[in-house]
Amino acid sequence: PTALPAAHEPMLLLAITEFVANSAAFAYFTAGALHRNISSNMLPRRFPLQLRTKSMGVFSPQLQERYPDQPMELHLSARRQPLLSCHPDALHGALFSSAEAFVVLPNATRVPAFLLNIDANVTGKPTITGNRLGGTVSLRG
To answer: GO CC terms on record (predicted)?
Structure first.
């Protein structure tokens, strides 16, 4: 078990171990809860990359040619359980996901466009300055 520091004044102490975090990740993954579908109307109009074939034509010119300016959907899901580890200066996570894009035709039929498997290592470093809680997040593919 993790040793907790001695409390010298009244305070709330919250401790989450790697075991708890990884158990939660396992439970969510096993239950199928690590899925998210994003449609074009869910993104703000000012978002730099819209889910339309016109915007995605930069990555795949054939999309715009075959399906001119059609809305798209993005299905995000975890392929494996995320792995989390706690270190004194940072939290680390390994994510194993996939992103499947679909073109949404006028009759609501979804046509598969592409599939990306994305593995990433994420590091979060919390900081406390005065009464402010902040931090940095870095991502490595």
So the answer is: extracellular space
Nearest to 125 by CA among 114, 139, 105: 139
Instruction: Set out the domains of the chain in order of their start, with CATH numbers.
Output: 18-42+50-140 (3.15.20.10)
**How many C-beta neighbours within 10 Å does residue 79 have?**
13
User: What is the distance in angstroms between the CA of the first residue and the CA of the last residue of the chain?
Assistant: 32
Burial class (CB in 10 A: 0-12, 13-18, 19+), 84: buried
| 136 membership: H or E segment, kind and range | strand 132-140
32 in Cβ contact with 79 (< 8 Å): no
Q: Hey, what amino acid is at 70?
A: Q
Run of H or E residues at 48: none
